[in-house]
Amino acid sequence: MLDDFFVRALLAGVGVALVAGPLGCFIVWRRLAYFGDTLSHAALLGVAFALLFEVNITLAVFAVAAVVSLLLLALQRRAGLSSDALLGLLAHSSIAIGLVALSFMTWVRVDLISFLFGDILAVSRTDIAVIYGGGIAVLGVLAWIWRPLFAATVNREIAEAEGQNPRQADIVFMVLMATVIAIALKIVGVLLITAMLIIPAATARRMVSGPEQMAVVAGVAAVASVVGGLFASLQWDTPSGPTIVVTAVCLFVASLLVPATFASRRRQGNP
Amino acid sequence: MLKRQEALVELDGAGVGRAGRWLVRGVNLSIRKGEILTLIGPNGSGKSTTARMALGVLNPDEGTASRQPGLKVGYVPQKVSIDWTLPLTVERFMRLTGNIGKADVDAAMERTGVSKLRHEEVRSLSGGEFQRVMLARAIARKPDLLVLDEPLQGVDFSGQIVLYELISKLRSELGCGILLISHDLHVVMAATDQVICLNGHVCCHGTPVAVASSPEYRQLFGDRAVPTLAVYEHHHDHVHLPDGRVRHADGTVTESCHPGDGHHHEHGEDGGNKEHGHA
Fold this sequence. Notes:
The structure holds 2 protein chains of 2 kinds.
Chain A: H1 5-29, H2 33-53, H3 57-78, H4 83-104, H5 112-117, H6 125-154, H7 156-161, H8 166-188, H9 193-205, H10 211-236, H11 240-257, H12 261-264
Chain B: E1 9-18, E2 21-31, E3 36-40, H1 47-55, E4 62-67, E5 73-76, H2 90-94, H3 102-111, H4 127-140, E6 145-149, H5 157-173, E7 177-181, H6 185-191, E8 194-198, E9 202-206, H7 208-212, H8 215-221, E10 238-240, E11 246-248, E12 253-254
Helix pairs in contact in B: 3-4
């Protein structure tokens, strides 16, 4: 069954979606959409390093994304610039360095398009193993830091005063993000990774009243986008990465049509 | 002599500076179990900064701050804004920093009068409701140290009286120490063991009576603040019921309590204090 490229694509996509949904909720809650973009731009620098030093692409992307995100934390503490300025600085400097580095490597002919938009139909068995291994690790760690991370998201001072150690949670979260960027690169590509993180979470928002619920619904929405997108791209012969994102957008638009149940239930809870 | 109890939290000559200026410095304080310490002082006098040093959220730039190891803290900060995009019900908010049993959550919400709100989204609460929920959340943890920074801002007046009463009961019930910051001088002075009056430094400290009669206090708050102490020395002729209504000496019950309602006898101000009975 795994011999079929389409089945492998489905499996890989579902694996990434299951991780991207819950993690994407934190991106939405913490207003880190631009941070996702920064990391995916940094991923391109990781690709350049991987080709230059002939190391595994996923590992190199993970390493560069982790370094960039920890660099961001360090720069934020020095507090001279706002976060969005720092993110822009890191995003564009890493993508520029990446492109310059690639241009030096005249001996490699790189298909940049496959990194920009992903190449889910070329997923190998090893890729699937990496996605599920990494994905299970990410979800496990996320469950472990869930309470402190969410508490710090709601209110950092309370979390810190009540012993939740938000700094540690921040660092762990950054590393998780770097992992997801690394394993998702091949599926949706640099340009669309942030979409996989944000759109399913945004879709889930209107249907839930609790954070844990939102993580689950976002995961389901992400899986539905991948499955729907892949079948649609097979049907109409469209590029698969962008089709997955378009499907996710369609789900989001559909979610807007759902009446906001919890807003209207105010004052009608248990007496 | 009673054995001197170990302090839950202790500041010794502690101070914090930002951008070349001291926000507050030279603060000495210690809070023991069952003790209420109140910080008073004008805006910008370093009350919240002092509380945050005591909590360990801010590290002092001079002096030291020490807490008992494993100290369980309940904190109600002065300003909390919760991002409206967060899906967060009151019930989930109660368990923000620890997995608290249903019975404790129920009891705490009952005591601050927010049981009805448990399924609401936090973003839909009014200011006063939110403060009550914040207080409930802090108590439900059964903390060793409760730090309340202007906990009752936006709470209606009769609610404030009931809740300050609750706060002063908590110290014996939970056996916790309480660090309270408040502008409601007349209420605070009635329910507290020690008062520290801050104005960038410790301006004066001691029992409420000692502080209120000190010249520094007069200078800081003016002579008009002095009679606030009289509040808990005068006789009370009405009782606040838990639902916010008021029963007067002549047996009638009214929705609220004000001097012009015909049920009050001659006295200065009304306000909450230790002698308020509760039905």
